[in-house]
Amino acid sequence: MKEKIMDISIHLFDKKGFTETSIQEIVETLGVTKGTFYYYFKNKQELLTDIHLHFIEFLLKNQQQILEDESKDSKEKLRAMIHMILTSIKDRKKSARIFFREMRNLEPNYLDQNVKKRDQFRINMQALLEEGIRNGEFDDSLNPNMVTRGILGITNWSYYWFDPEGDVSEEQLADIYLNLILNGIIKRE
Fold first, then answer.
1. d(CA 10, CA 129)
2. Are residues 41 and 72 in contact, defined by beta-carbon separation less than 8 angstroms?
3. Hey, which of 41, 43, 116, 167 has its CA 20 to 30 A from 143?
4. Which tens digit of pLDDT belongs to each residue from 75-120?
C-alpha cells in the first residue's frame, strides 16, 4: 500500500503540484481512508521526502554500478552515467520532474537527507572526472567541480523538455551530450 500511495502521489504531484495536492485527494484517488495514509506517512512532507529518496537512491545505485565497472575507462563511464540519467527520465519521468521541481517544497528537516544524497551523486561524478584527468583522458586545465556541475546542469534539465518518444532517443542524446562535453561545438578542420 505504501508503494501505491507513492505512485498515486507522484502522478498527482506531477499533474497538479505538491502544494496543490491534498492528502484528501490522494486517499480519494486510492479509495482508502486518511488513516491508511497516516499509517505509512506522518504528513505530506514525509511522503515527498520518500519520493525524492526513492529516486535519488535509484540513481546512486546505478551510478555506483557504473563506477565499479572495471571494463570501462573514464570516458565510457561518463557516457554510461549520462545515458543512465537520460534513461531514468524516460523510465521515471514523473519522479524526475518531482525530484527537481518539488525540492523547493521540502522543509529543512526533510531536505537535509535529500541534499546529502544529491550531493553524493555530484561528488561521485566529480571523482570520475578527476580519475579521468589523472589517467590522461580529460583536460587537466579545467576545474572538475565546475565541469561536473555543468554536466549535471545539462543532463538534469533534460527532464523538463526531453521526449524519449520524439526524434532523438536517449541513446542519441547521450552521444550528443558526450560529444558536446568532450569536444565542444567548434567546427574541426
1. 33
2. no
3. 116
4. 999 999 999 988 887 778 888 888 888 888 888 888 888 889 999 9
Segments forming the whole domain that contains residue 163? 44-183
> Are 92 and 179 part of one and the same domain?
yes
**45 φ, ψ (degrees, to nearest 5):** -60, -45
Q: How many CB atoms lie within 10 A of CB 78?
A: 24
In eight-state DSSP terms, residue 182 is H
Residue 137: CA atoms inside 13 Å, Cβ hemisphere, count?
A: 16
* CA pair distance 108, 20, nearest whole angstrom: 20
- Cα distance between residue 76 and residue 140, in whole Å: 18
User: Three-state DSSP class for 142?
Assistant: coil
CA nearest neighbour of 48 among 16, 88, 19: 19
3-class SS shares of the chain: helix, strand, coil, % to 5: 75, 0, 25
Structural domains counted in the chain: 2
In sequence order, the 6+-apart residues with CB closer than 8 A to the CB of 45 are 106, 107, 110
Farthest CA pair distance, the chain: 68
What percent of the chain lies above the pLDDT cut of 70?
Answer: 100
Q: Are 35 and 71 in contact (CB under 8 A)?
A: no
